[in-house]
Amino acid sequence: DQQVKQNSPSLSVQEGRISILNCDYTNSMFDYFLWYKKYPAEGPTFLISISSIKDKNEDGRFTVFLNKSAKHLSLHIVPSQPGDSAVYFCAASARGTYKYIFGTGTRLKVLA
Amino acid sequence: DADVTQTPRNRITKTGKRIMLECSQTKGHDRMYWYRQDPGLGLRLIYYSFDVKDINKGEISDGYSVSRQAQAKFSLSLESAIPNQTALYFCATSEGADYQPQHFGDGTRLSIL
């Protein structure tokens, strides 16, 4: 049973527009969430995180929103740039487990 | 130089062979992890280690073993490789505290014929 789900395998967005990537989770014990970006032939790189005590965290063009009641988080990229084209993974962790559960990833393509 | 280095980057081998994937890090992190990535399944945790004397199984440890030779080195072994172990393997590290992001190597693409 997949505890972290990214239901959209792919997304295409025009350059300059907003990209919204979604992630749903089922385990109510998760209290820390991260987004990673992965380019081909490279490992995932950490992008942004959010703790369950917050509902929003911002870092430059990247904002993560957390809706605990819906068990849903989203990553907003504004404005989107061609260099943002990559696979994005969300991951979740529960206090004391010291492990992360990853979603299946969403491939974002930003069109110039 | 990369902070987390995986060797080899690519490997093709035959069913039944023993294979070792190696990971070394210069980040000084206590925690190290091995994941595999399969199409449509994301990253799944194979084994993790919080220090040299602490080794733990992840979600999918069957058919794999690990060795933490030093704080900086964590190797993954497939004792007798089978075709469904064909995947992309990643090593990752993190600091020894809650809620720390993981830092990944660039992966090893393993094909078992």
Descriptive account of the structure:
The complex is a heterodimer of chains A (112) and B (113). Chain A is mainly beta and 112 residues long. Chain A has strands at 4-5, 10-14, 19-25, 30-38, 45-51, 56-59, 62-67, 72-77, 86-94, 101-102, 106-111. The N and C termini of chain A lie far apart (38 Å). In chain A, β6 (56-59) and β7 form a beta hairpin. In chain A, strands 2, 4, 5, 9, 10 and 11 form a six-stranded mixed sheet that branches. Helix content of chain A is 0%, strand content 56%. With 113 residues, chain B is mainly beta. Chain B contains no helices and eleven strands. Chain B has strands at 4-7, 10-13, 19-25, 31-38, 42-51, 54-57, 65-70, 73-78, 87-94, 103-104, 108-112. In chain B, strands 2, 4, 5, 6, 9, 10 and 11 form a seven-stranded mixed sheet that branches. Chain B is globular. In chain B, 35% of the residues are buried. The chains are: A mainly beta (112), B mainly beta (113). Chains A and B meet through β4 and β5 of A and β5 and β10 of B.
Order of helices and strands of chain B: EEEEEEEEEEE
Tell me, briefly, the overall form of chain A.
Answer: globular
The major β-sheet of chain B equals: 7 strands, mixed
Question: What is the β-strand count of chain A?
Answer: 11
Straight-line N-to-C gap of chain B: 32 Å
Mean pLDDT of chain B: 94
Assign an overall shape of chain B. globular
Oligomer: heterodimer
Task: Give a short account of the largest sheet of chain A.
Answer: 6 strands, mixed
Low-confidence stretches of chain B: none
| Largest interface: chains, residues each | A-B, 25 and 23 residues
> What is the overall number of helices of chain A?
0
> What is Rg of chain A?
13 Å
β-sheet strand percentage of chain B? over 45%
DSSP helix fraction of chain B: under 10%
Order of helices and strands of chain A: EEEEEEEEEEE
